[in-house]
Amino acid sequence: MKRLFVLSTFLMANHLYAQKFEKEDLYRTWCLDKYSDEETYYEPPKKEVGDYIRLKEDMTYEVKSEGVLDSGTWMLNTNGNYLELKSDPGTSPGQEGKAEKLYLYFLSTQSMVFTYDVDEYRIWEVHYVSCN
Amino acid sequence: MKLLSLSVFIFSFLTFTPTFSQEVVALRSVPFDVPSEGIYIADVCDERPNKQLGTHKNLTGDKVKLYLDKGADQAVKSFYEISLPQQTGHRPICIEIKALNVQESKRRMNSFITRVARAHVELAFLEQRGGKLVEIFSIQHNEDQVFGLYDKIGLYATHERRIRAALEYCMLAFLDNYQESKPDTLATHFDIPKGGYRINPRLGQWFNLVTVKGMRSTYFEGYSISYTGFVDNKKGFIRPYETSFEVTWARPGVAEDNGYRDVESFVFRPELYFVYRRIIQGVYVSLSANVPVGYETLENLDGGNSFNFVIGIGASQGLRIIPWERRGIVFGADFFQQLETSEVYRRDIGVELVLGINF
Q1: Angle, nearest 10°, between helix axes B159-177 and B72-83?
Q2: pLDDT of A9 above 80
Q3: Across the interface, do B186 and A58 touch by the CB < 8 Å criterion?
Q4: pLDDT tens digit string along A104-118?
Q5: Which of B142, B143, B146 is nearest to B115 (CA)?
Q6: Which residue of A has its CA nearest to B193?
Q7: Rounded Cα distance, B312 and B333, in Å
Q8: Judged by CB atoms within 8 Å, which residues 25-54 of A form the interface with B?
Q9: Is B184 within 8 Å of chain A by CB?
């Protein structure tokens, strides 16, 4: 029941964007800091310690997720307040890259907060801090 | 005279078409970053046969037709002009709007139901080449967003933003593929999928079913009442959300044959797997696998009571027929099989008849 409440209040809040995000603020290496929900903050699990996202100016990225490295291209949708990360296509022909949508909630030169557009992780806000 | 007025009444009832009032959506002027400014939008043509964005319930609960303020062609042109202003030396590009609408439905998310909203856009980009307007790029895009089941207001209030996001997405995709003005230093993000865009232009319709089942098996009989919600999909498996309440009792003779006076069981059936598959419009097959878990109370012939923990595995195959899409009746049948640790049976097979309504 508590989870349902968290889910409903969280989803209710997801249209209350106010900030306009600047692309320049994204060009850096972001280190995974913590997760949060409506109530509290959570340390990342051990296997995610050291995870990062490096967003480069040539619109490519590098990511370390659960210790595994991956790369691809990214874009910012200013009107939709989201980033789209598309991983490089696989080696087999015809295989297209997998796209992930990250809804931005907060962005400064030091900190980035977003949620993944995936049912399993939708209730968590993910906090990254600048590693530079 | 009476007959005439009655026929007039029936005629007007049959020919009645609901009329909806109109509401306009004004696009906010929010500029977005473009990788190059080598182009401007010279003209936008709205090619849609139907110029509305869709019919929706507004915040006061009235059904309204939504339109873009100043017409879609002018609204889209003005929106792009903020980010791509006309300058000398820039190349003129024309846009044809093939589709532009906003939609709302529901779907299952984990063990809950959520609302989903979509802005659907299809644009063609054209350029003068050799004295003729030639299509040089086209794109279809869905801008989807998930909302809480009770967040009608949040969903309705953000249709406008999803239209802007979809328009931005299409323009960024075009610029990314328009080699004439694209800086060499940037990676290509928006590859055109091989075989073209294969997105679903419409969100599936959400069905609510409330059904009563009469059930009879080798050892038990009973009934249940269920709520089922699912989003329609022409292809692939549909994952419905279902919650039900079930009462069963041992059939006459079953308890006695096993040396008891009475047997009652209280069993929940958490699903392992539950899907619908559409065969043709209005006809679905269902498949499920579940884990019956609960207990039974047994009263033996000399009056003593005992208690038994029950766990097992069950499966069912069924058919649902929904002749009227919007609202009407639902009927169907299920066959089921189960293995349980019951004191009176190990294996059971049965049939359920289903009758209910959809809305």
Answers
A1: 60
A2: no
A3: yes
A4: 999 999 999 999 999
A5: B146
A6: A96
A7: 22
A8: none
A9: no
- Name which of B32, B154, B185 is nearest A78 (Cβ-Cβ): B32
pTM of the entire structure?
Answer: 0.80
- DSSP-derived secondary structure letter, B192: P
Query: Is A80 in contact with B143 (Cβ distance < 8 A)?
Result: yes
Dihedral over alpha carbons A2, B59, B326, B122 (to 10 degrees): -100
Tell me whether residues B162 and A120 touch, CB distance under 8 A. no
- Segment holding B72, helix H or strand E: helix B72-83
Torsion sign over Cα B307, B312, B315, B320: positive
Contact call for residues B312 and B338 (beta carbons, < 8 A): yes
Q: CA angle, corner B187, sides to B185 and B191, nearest 5?
A: 140
Contact A73 B167 (CB under 8 A): no
Q: At residue B60, does pLDDT exceed 90?
A: no
Helix (H) or strand (E) holding A65: strand A60-65
DSSP B116-178: EEEEEEEEEEEEEETTEEEEEEEEEEEEEEEE-TT-HHHHHHTHHHHHHHHHHHHHHHHHHH-
Residue closest to A81 by CA, chosen among B26, B171, B162 = B162
B310-326, pLDDT tens digit by residue? Answer: 999 999 999 999 998 88
Residues of A in contact with B148 (CB under 8 A): 7-12
- Reported in sequence order, the residue ranges of B203-304 that DSSP labels E, i.e. its strands, are 206-217, 220-231, 237-238, 241-250, 260-268, 271-280, 283-290, 293-300
- B150–chain A Cβ distance below 8 A for any pair: yes
Q: Are the beta carbons of B187 and A15 separated by less than 8 Å?
A: no
- B144 is written with which tokens? 């989807």
Can you tell me which residue has the tokens 């400064």? Answer: A108
